[in-house]
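User: Design a sequence. Structure:
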């Protein structure tokens, strides 16, 4: 019985650690499929081993959602290191999530005067 309880707790903690990845990524996926936006993915590989070195995903829209994305980033601030900066009329929010298998960097840029313009960059670096 102890074995099952320990397994359950480990599974629960693993699920909580991936919450930032899932909620922000799911939000980007939902908005990118609704139209009026652009979504690109670039994969950098090691030429000798063909292993993935870095994945960069970029999402841009001007159809709104700036506050929605910001709230998602703020909710996930506890899962990694959080930075919020305002310069030149632009808000930049950075969330870095360190995991044993990878580092995920989420960056949200939005215009101070127009929260409809949003750019999200997600960088995934396997370890």
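Assistant: Done.
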């Amino acid at each position: 019985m102890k074995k099952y309880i320990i397994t359950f707790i480990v599974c629960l903690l693993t699920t909580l650690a991936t919450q930032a990845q899932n909620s922000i990524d799911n939000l980007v996926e939902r908005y990118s499929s609704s139209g009026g936006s652009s979504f690109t993915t670039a994969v950098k590989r090691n030429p000798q081993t063909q292993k993935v070195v870095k994945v960069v995903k970029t999402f841009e829209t001007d159809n709104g959602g700036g506050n929605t994305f910001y709230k998602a980033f703020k909710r996930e601030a506890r899962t990694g290191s959080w930075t919020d900066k305002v310069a030149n009329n632009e808000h930049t929010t950075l969330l870095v999530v360190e995991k044993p298998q990878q580092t995920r960097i989420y960056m949200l840029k939005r215009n101070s005067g127009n929260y409809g313009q949003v750019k999200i960059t997600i960088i995934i670096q396997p370890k």
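Helices lie at 2-17, 19-32, 66-75. Strands lie at 37-45, 52-61, 81-87, 90-98, 102-111, 118-126.
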